[in-house]
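Because showing beats explaining, we think one record worth quoting, sequence and backbone structure tokens together, and here it is:
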Amino acid sequence: MGRVEGRVAVITGGASGFGAATARLMAAEGAKVLVADVQDELGRAVAESIGPSAVFRHTDVSSEDDVAAAVDAAVSQFGRLDVMFNNAGIVGAVGPIDQIPLSEYEFTMGVLLRSVFLGMKHAARVMKQQESGVILSTSSIAGVMGGLGPHVYTAAKSAIIGLTRNVAAELGPWGVRVVAIVPGNHATAMTADVALGDHTAVDQVVETFRDRKTPLRGRAGLADDIAHAALWLSSDHAGFVSGTAIVVDGGLTTGSKEAAERGQGTFAAPRPLILQGGQRGLR
């Protein structure tokens, strides 16, 4: 306990999913938390469930005024800013590349990528003065592999990783670390909506993912898995980690198969050493 004792975190998308889980865990480990979201009722409920170490602020992450105000509110309320977690997200525009409306592309990029740029920008102006801090951003396995997400979502999540590397290179001299977190198939309200058409069916999507959407038999990805990654990255235990993307996906991006049977696959059984010209075995 107390791995982030006395630190102050702003968590966007903090009303549900990864954000809510991270807010609760950070607070349990000693942090003060500002929950930033457009979902007012849910956001207030999360902050109230945490208690006096958390506050909620309505924040449209695509708006520079709102993001700047959230950072300023955390500093005003708690005296500093140690962690900025750019986590807010949507699935956004979905469809064939030749049919996506430009307006949907721009809206999606505003929520998924402009928000990260703005969070980094306004966290940096505080953290450079402090000469310390951690900036985290939620990417996706769609950002490191093709064919796993909608086009615009994939573009944004890929760009987050590139932006993370570049900003880490800039802010290192101020002692500020910058890291992307790359979730896989995790059971949240958003994935329940995509998989089952019901954002409230999180328990059901846990069962679905446990059976079919993971290389780790019997283990679904949970929001708490991302919360624990964010907690570790925010703590001194990750004090030499910056400019990279931490993948939390059960091994999916290694090429591991979802719901694979034990003892099956290309390398499941011994075979003779393969030589040139169709020859086999040591000579």
The chain is about 40% helix and 15% strand. The chain has one domain: 8-278. The mean pLDDT is 92. The longest strand covers residues 176-183.
